[in-house]
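TASK: fixed-backbone design
INPUT:
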């Protein structure tokens, strides 16, 4: 083999930047592999790798659809970003970028990635979201609930009897017994779309009258009593349609990830 061929086949020597992730004074450092290994052991690396997969799949889909972000829309997004963070001057914006160790180009790429994601979602699912709403408006009513989740069905039955026969206060029972995060609020779950509820609860409350206690409903975490406090008719407003789009988009992403046959060779090096 000639010298030229050997030179072409040999990978370039790692730069100091690639070898060293953190420099501690003049004598000590943390290598990039050490840093990545620590992130992996703490469960932080795999989520980042999965995010990178999703970003790449979205970019590929945007290319297939011929989508791009115009300069005008990019400027609009930059203005919104700055207002939300109080970066009212160019100097404050550059100061913030410096504090994050980001360049203007990094920032623009971040904005563009976020906007491309929105465009892909809207292109694929805006029409389907409207059709889904029209077909199943009952799933997109907005309601307020109270719920009690307990570990055993017999306890759920006992609490139901206390509510019906002893006129016990639902909120008090939730505070005393519920395993759900809403316990401190007396079981109150405010202004939620029916379709955002767990499937078992969604099916139980669909069409039920306000004020009636439903259950026990079997859940993966136990048994639930539910009472619909308020119910508002479904409205095809922007927030509701975006919620439908987002659910469809997340399901699509999962399908794309599964079909892509993703592997993470980096993790093999670290384990």
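OUTPUT:
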């Amino acid at each position: 083999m000639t010298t030229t061929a050997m030179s072409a086949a040999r990978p370039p020597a790692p730069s100091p930047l690639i070898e060293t992730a953190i420099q501690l004074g003049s004598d000590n450092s943390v290598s990039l592999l050490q840093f990545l290994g620590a992130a992996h052991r703490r469960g932080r690396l795999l989520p980042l790798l999965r995010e990178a997969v999703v970003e790449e799949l979205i970019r590929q889909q945007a290319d297939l659809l011929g989508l791009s972000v115009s300069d005008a829309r990019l400027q609009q997004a930059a203005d919104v970003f700055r207002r939300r963070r109080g970066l009212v001057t160019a100097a404050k914006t550059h100061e913030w970028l410096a504090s994050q160790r980001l360049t203007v180009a990094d920032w623009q790429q971040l904005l563009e990635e976020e906007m491309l994601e929105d465009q892909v979602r809207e292109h694929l699912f805006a029409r389907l979201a409207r059709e889904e709403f029209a077909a199943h408006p009952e799933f997109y009513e907005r309601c307020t609930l109270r719920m009690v989740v307990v570990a055993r069905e017999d306890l759920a039955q006992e609490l139901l009897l206390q509510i019906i026969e002893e006129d016990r206060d639902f909120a008090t029972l939730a505070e005393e017994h519920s395993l759900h995060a809403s316990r401190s609020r007396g079981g109150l779950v405010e202004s939620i779309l029916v379709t955002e509820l767990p499937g078992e609860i969604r099916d139980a409350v669909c069409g039920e009258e306000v004020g009636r206690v439903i259950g026990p409903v079997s859940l993966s975490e136990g048994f639930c009593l539910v009472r619909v406090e308020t119910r508002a008719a479904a409205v095809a407003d922007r927030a509701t349609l975006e919620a439908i789009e987002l659910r469809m988009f997340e399901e699509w992403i999962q399908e794309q990830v599964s079909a892509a046959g993703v592997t993470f060779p980096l993790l093999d090096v670290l384990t």
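COMMENT: Residues 142-232 form a domain with the Chitinase A; domain 3 fold (CATH 3.10.50.40).
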